[in-house]
Design a protein that fits this description.
The complex is a heterotrimer, with 1 copy of chain A (259 residues) and 2 copies of chain B (216 residues). A 3-stranded antiparallel β-sheet of chain A has the order 2-4-3. Helix content of chain A is 57%, strand content 5%. Chain B is of the alpha+beta class and 216 residues long. Helices cover 44% and strands 12% of the residues of chain B. Classes of the chains: A mainly alpha (259), B alpha+beta (216). At the A-B interface, helix 1, helix 2, helix 3 and helix 5 of A face strand 2, helix 6 and helix 10 of B.
């Protein structure tokens, strides 16, 4: 029942937003809110929202309960004698204070918005790039929030990365090929072969890694690099890398061979 | 700055050595403010140039005053505790057409602005405190504000659970063109409803004509 | 530009209407030349502003002359047939020296930031462990982080090969404004922000189009 009238019903950020609007539009004295009337209007709104399937958050319901509670407290007569000893606070006071507090911040938000309007009409054109040393790392300016966000991203990525248990006995050559594919997919620079081997935690894993490397070098997916004699051996992605993994055939053939 | 025509003929050398020096300093300051992307404080500038702070301050004030004149389309303003050069807002129509690198406007929802306002006035403030004032669960906009570097974490509060507190950043001052937080109007000034009553005491309670919940 | 003191007192309105207009045009040209990076020709400006070419040319000449004065550290020059603002060459050394002294904000490459994040949350941690979590080979960024004193060695781990472990430093705490490591936001707290965000976003501005069939 998606109604064309839907957007006639104003949306409110929260119950305070709605109450403030009701009070303002009717120019009601904030210190003397006609609680029965406002409660009725508030409930009307909720009902209409429900009819239109606009989901209102739990706070709207909680506020409705609060309003009804205040209303009932105001209906109950007080013992005038008791009142003389300890005059009861107006049951509306707390709500009024919350509304006033909320209103201040809502108006402050509008003030901020106006400031942005001005700032969006001016432009700066700093020329600092011309004066920065070239070796300056252009990097990202980093905050504490970036730190936790980045860590979360790294973990997230790890979660979605196919995991190959390299320290169990079950590790196989095809596993290692998939592992290498993973390593070199996002790495175009040379990777130290020693580093790769050092990361393996079992003899079997090292042997499988070695065989997997030979396989990929043979297929010209990876190349070996060595800067100088007896220098460190590096591994680098070759042009054939994509092609080898493009179809499923290569992998299938290798699986076949080792099973 | 009256002998400028003479100075133009023989740059760097004026009759009065002093005013030549002043002009020189002012020129360097102008170049520095023009070049830098972040508002620099007078202290930073003084320290970097190895000059006394009050001298730098005076020269910067003169620069600000000079650019405030109507024949300048640029202005140097005090923003975020420092000095920043930009075009003047009154020329935005003419200037806009020439701006190539239009940075996308900082679009913030009213909810985000409200949250930002609460943080600006109540900092350091925790998430529950913010939600309390707004009467809304969900501090989702915090992430947006953190992402845009308008707010930052400000340590933990020493209460149960040690919740994180938040504060506004220098970027906030820059984005909203504020010299510092004290430039914000007081919260009291934002109270409308309470004030309304003092003026319109006798306002009769009109019948509830049309509450915003419109007819369905 | 002699009547500027008067103009300052009553901005935008001068005795001579003409000179007020001139000032206005000059201001706009100043702002336009400032915001554009490529030299603009007088023709381009005249066309964009819908003003006669000779008027624009005269105003640009006045602007060039004004900035040629020694109290200006900027200059507007004719380059490649157009007009361009830049700092004056004689102040380049001063500006360069100044920029060099600015302590830049902590800037890190994404790889370095990732590594730092892993170390911050997993310390003490070894290189293989870092690479394992990041799923990336190459620990070159460790050197960057060590050089910047954001991390330090924290002894060796008692496993085969006794690899070196790393931890964050006091400088790290200073850079991120932390009293101690317990102030680091926890992952749970971060995820809380994200989760609340979804709540907020799930509440669209307009009414939902396709509500679940309510009253059947």
């Amino acid at each position: 029942m998606s109604s064309p009238l839907n957007f006639h019903l104003e949306q409110y950020d929260g119950p305070l937003d709605l109450l403030l609007d009701l009070i303002r539009k009717q120019q009601i004295n904030i210190y003397d809110i006609p609680i029965a009337r406002i409660t009725q209007q508030y409930l009307d709104y909720m009902q209409k929202a429900a009819q239109m399937d606009i989901e209102l958050s739990a706070e709207f319901v909680y506020m409705a309960a609060t309003l009804i509670h205040i209303k009932s407290r105001m209906l109950l007569p007080r013992d005038p004698e008791l009142d003389k000893i300890s005059p009861e606070e107006d049951p509306r006071t707390e709500l009024v204070n919350r509304l006033l507090e909320y209103e201040r911040f809502r108006n402050a938000a509008e003030m901020l918005q106006q400031k942005r309007v001005v700032e969006e009409a001016v432009w700066s054109n700093p020329q600092i790039a011309q004066f920065r040393a070239e070796d300056d790392d252009p990097g990202l300016a980093v905050t504490l929030f970036d730190l936790v966000k980045t860590f979360q991203n790294v973990l997230e990525r790890a979660k979605h990365r196919p995991v190959y248990e390299i320290d169990t006995e079950e590790v196989s050559v095809p596993d290692m090929i998939r592992y290498l594919r993973n390593v070199f997919q996002n790495e175009s620079a040379a990777v130290s072969a020693r580093d790769l081997f050092e990361r393996q935690r079992s003899r079997r894993a090292m042997i499988c890694l070695f065989l997997a490397l030979l396989e990929l070098v043979k297929l010209q997916a990876l190349g070996l690099t060595q800067k100088d004699l007896f220098g460190e051996i590096g591994l680098k992605r070759l042009k054939g890398f994509e092609a080898v993994f493009a179809g499923g055939e290569t992998m299938a053939a290798i699986e076949q061979g080792y099973n | 700055m009256q002998e400028m025509d003479a100075a133009e003929l023989a740059p760097q050398v004026t009759d009065e050595q002093n005013s030549g020096e002043d002009a020189q300093l002012q020129a360097i300051l102008e170049a520095i403010v023009y070049v830098t992307d972040e508002p620099l404080t007078a202290q930073q500038i003084a320290a970097a140039l190895g000059q006394p702070l009050d001298k730098i301050k005076r020269a910067l004030d003169a620069l600000v005053a000079e650019y405030a004149k109507p024949e300048h389309g640029l202005s140097i303003r005090e923003v975020a505790g420092g000095y920043k050069m930009s075009t003047k807002a009154e020329h935005h129509e003419a200037v806009r057409a020439f701006v190539k690198k239009l940075t996308p406007p900082l679009k913030l929802s009213l909810a985000a602005l409200e949250t930002l306002a609460v943080i600006a006035y109540k900092q350091p403030v925790t998430t529950p405190e913010i939600m309390d004032i707004r009467g809304v669960q969900g501090a989702g906009v915090l992430k947006t504000l953190l992402d845009r570097k308008l707010i930052a974490e400000a340590g933990r509060k020493d209460v149960v659970g040690r919740p994180i507190t938040y504060k506004t950043t220098k970027e906030f001052l820059v984005q909203f063109g504020l010299k510092d937080l004290s430039e914000l109007p007081t919260l009291k000034e934002f109270e409308e409803l309470g004030r309304l009553e003092l003026v319109e005491e006798a306002q009769p309670e009109a019948a509830p004509e049309n509450p915003p919940a419109a007819d369905a």
